[in-house]
Specification:
One of its GO terms (biological process) is pectin catabolic process. GO terms for molecular function: pectinesterase activity. Its EC number is 3.1.1.11. This is pectinesterase. The structure is a single chain. By secondary structure, the protein is of the alpha/beta class. The chain has one domain: Single-stranded right-handed beta-helix, Pectin lyase-like (Pectate Lyase C-like). 13% of the residues lie in helices and 32% in strands. It is built from 4 helices and 27 strands. Strands 1-2-5-8-11-14-17-20-24-27 form a 10-stranded parallel sheet, with helices on both faces. Strands 4, 7, 10, 13, 16, 19, 22, 23 and 26 form a 9-stranded parallel sheet that branches. Helix 2 links the parallel strand 1 and strand 2.
């Protein structure tokens, strides 16, 4: 009996030790919850109305819970309204959607005429504030949803603040689906669908266990699309898209990325790649022949699309230390993720 009791006590201690990280990483509390319900059962029917209620200069986390439904509206989180948690019921049930797209002549765009719309303005969802979290919600641009023959830039989301995280969210579009523009961002178990440059920008981001889906129609006649288009302002600037785990699949053909400038940085780490991937893997685009500073790399990927035999000769082969620099959470996180709800 004494031996049995001792063993039980040891087992209990081990269980508690194994659970301790989860017990010690309690979520940061929210100060209040605002409910959005398209059917009228909440505080507001529109998401933007709930955002507008958050005071400028807000320093306490406020949850905006968006109940299941389709919300046809454009939503903007302005710079002065930080510490917002935008939460849906699930990305299949809570969807923000709109259908804006780039249009207008060059002169109209320069003058910002009434009949013109630039790339960033097309986004269904825009976040400019620092310290923002979204969970279990979908952001969709329905332009080119069916007819992709005259596709143009039509953003589902523009992410342009620092210390931003998306958990189990969906981003749906075709060309320029997700503008991961500036700042440090974390995408966990997200679903991102597009055909042309569907993740682009200057940001420093980790995509952890995300699913990337190409939706280029087999009948479109388009040779291939590009999953990413990344850039950095200068050689010393921090930045890069890092994909850890997850999968890349879909229809049509895709390059893993093209260089928006000669400092583009994209790393795929232990991702499962289907045969949608073009054998060359990467395109130089604006880097032209000057690819020495472009850092495109794949490490430990699997699946038929991961065969590197036909890759471009300027793809980088990273050392273990170089790989760790990108895939470790310190690439984006200096403690801010633990301060989010």
């Amino acid at each position: 009996m004494e031996c049995h009791g001792t063993v039980s006590l040891v087992v209990l201690v081990l269980v508690l030790l194994l659970r301790w990280p989860a017990l010690s990483s309690a979520s940061v509390p929210v100060s209040r919850t605002i409910t959005v319900d398209s059917k009228g059962g909440g505080d507001f029917r529109s998401i933007q109305s709930a955002v507008n209620l958050v005071p400028d200069g807000n320093r306490e986390w406020i949850r905006i819970h968006v109940r299941a439904g389709g919300y046809r509206e454009k939503v903007t989180i302005p710079r002065e309204k930080g510490h917002i948690l935008l939460e849906g019921d699930s990305p299949s049930n809570t969807v923000i959607f709109f259908d804006d797209y780039v249009h207008g002549s060059t002169d109209d765009l320069m003058r910002r005429g009434a009949n013109a719309m630039g790339t960033y303005e097309t986004a269904t969802f825009r976040v400019y504030a620092n310290d923002f979290v979204a969970r279990d919600i979908a952001f969709t641009n329905t332009h080119s949803g069916i007819n992709k023959s005259n596709a143009t830039q039509a953003l589902a989301a523009l992410v342009d603040g620092d210390r931003i995280a998306f958990h189990r969210c969906a981003f749906n579009g075709f060309q320029d689906t997700l503008c991961d523009n500036t700042g440090r961002h974390y995408f966990r178990e997200c679903f991102i669908k597009g055909g042309v440059d569907f993740i682009f920008g200057y940001a420093r981001s980790i995509y952890d266990g995300c699913t990337l889906v190409s939706n280029i129609p087999l009948w479109s006649g388009r040779r291939a699309g590009w999953v990413t288009a990344h850039a950095r302002g200068r050689a010393g600037d921090p930045g890069g898209f890092v994909f850890k785990g997850g999968e890349l699949r879909g229809t049509g053909r895709q390059y893993l990325g093209r260089a928006w400038n000669k400092y583009a940085t994209v790393v795929y780490y232990h991702m499962n790649m289907s045969s949608v991937v073009v054998p060359k893997g990467w395109a130089p685009w604006y880097a032209g022949n000057d690819t020495n500073d472009v850092l495109f790399a794949e490490v430990g990927c699997t699946g038929p699309g991961s065969d590197m035999a036909g890759r471009v000769p300027w793809e980088k082969h990273l050392s273990e230390a170089e790989v760790k620099k990108f895939v470790d959470m310190s690439f984006i996180d200096d403690g801010w993720l633990s301060k989010q709800p």
